[in-house]
Specification:
This protein is 26% helix and 32% strand. It is built from three helices and ten strands.
Length: 185
């Protein structure tokens, strides 16, 4: 009889310790996969602005291209800039028409910018923006009168760095996209 009690107590203690280990492991795994504060995907610009922690701009004219998915708020990828946030919204879901708006509060690019052709400068949101394209280089299409090239429009205003990019759109469409941004309220 005593032997059975001892075995029963040992079995119960073993099951309890396994449950404790499983619960601890599950909570550690959940903590590791839980998003950091200020990072995530949001359906509204207002929620994304709260998470990002700085004033965002949203487009009023998307030239018939609808937002594809949620607005993403992530950390700045640049070394030593992890406390800054990047907000990205994608427009268009086909390979023919695509635009993206990215904003961050670091005051500069959060990732290295690749080689591109400088097309010119334009006025956007009251500041001078630089228009660049993946064109007019070896094995790439011409910039002038071409929709089948990537175009990038970048500018800084009040400590926020903006980047609007497009593929399958005219340069003037991208410039208009950047000019028709309004503050999120």
């Amino acid at each position: 009889m005593r032997w059975f009690r001892l075995m029963g107590t040992t079995a119960v203690a073993g099951i309890a310790s396994m449950a404790l280990v499983a619960t601890t492991a599950a909570s550690e795994a959940l903590a590791a996969t839980a998003p950091a504060a200020g990072v995530g995907q949001f359906t509204t610009w207002r929620a994304a602005q709260r998470a990002a922690g700085f004033g965002l701009m949203k487009p009023t004219n998307t030239y018939g291209v609808h937002r594809a998915g949620k607005i993403m708020v992530t950390r700045c990828e640049e070394h030593l800039r992890s406390r800054y946030r990047v907000t990205t919204a994608n427009y268009g879901s086909s390979a023919f028409h695509y635009m993206v708006l990215s904003q961050n509060n670091s005051g500069g690019a959060c990732q290295r910018e690749g080689t591109s052709h400088r097309i010119g400068r334009v006025r956007v949101q009251g500041v001078t923006a630089v228009l660049r394209g993946l064109c007019d280089m070896a094995h790439l299409p011409r910039c002038k009168n071409n929709r089948k090239a990537w175009f990038f429009l970048t500018w800084r205003k009040h400590g926020v760095y903006y980047m609007a990019a497009s593929y399958g759109e005219w340069q003037s469409t991208l410039i208009g996209f950047g000019r028709h941004l309004v503050p999120v309220r």
